Amino acid sequence: xxxxxxxxxxxxxxxxxxxxxxxxxxxxxxxxxxxxxxxxxxxxxxxxxxxxxxxxxxxxxxxxxxxxxxxxxxxxxxxxxxxxxxxxxxxxxxxxxxxxxxxxxxxxxxxxxxxxxxxxxxxxxxxxxxxxxxxxxxxxxxxxxxxxxxxxxxxxxxxxxxxxxxxxxxxxxxxxxxxxxxxxxxxxxxxxxxxxxxxxxxxxxxxxxxxxxxxxxxxxxxxxxxxxxxxxxxxxxxxx
Length: 240
Known about the structure:
Blueprint: H1 13-22, H2 27-60, E1 120-126, E2 130-136, E3 139-146, E4 151-156, E5 159-165, E6 170-174, E7 177-178, E8 189-196, E9 202-204
Antiparallel strand pairs: 1-4, 1-6, 2-3, 2-5, 5-8, 6-7, 8-9
């Protein structure tokens, strides 16, 4: 029976290979292959980088050095012998003094007893040449120079004013407390004033120079006249 007309004949193998080679791969397959290649590349790079960092960490890690303490040997002492213990002075001896290197002596300033009845008290100790103006209750009471080593004190009831030229060369105390320069300019010229309030508490106010005291007029002497009273004379009369 001739079946050649019923069933088609198979294509020769050479023809099948040619057809297969000519059919290109679809686009999704190419994209998948590319992504897979990129993943493999990054995985290999990460693995190599991890191995490199581990090797560097192991190389830089230091091995701890074990220090072995040597035993302490104590030599035996003969009976009755004792080890001397050195003694040190509690304070070092003073330095030697020479004519050009005198022993410094600390000078203690005598504290001035404040008058409890007067709330404003001023003390000035001159270290250098200074010029001082002091006003009490608005009246000038002192205007002059102070030599080094001199001290003066003033007390007031209502108001106290002072002005010191070359203030860095003086120690100024108000009510027993040191008065320091508030600004650098006050080291050259310092001017302060305080008043006492109703509770006799000092209050710092703007300095106002005091007025010179009013001179007391001198009385004009009254001329005196000496009137001499004549002494009467007695005349004797002789009667014949």
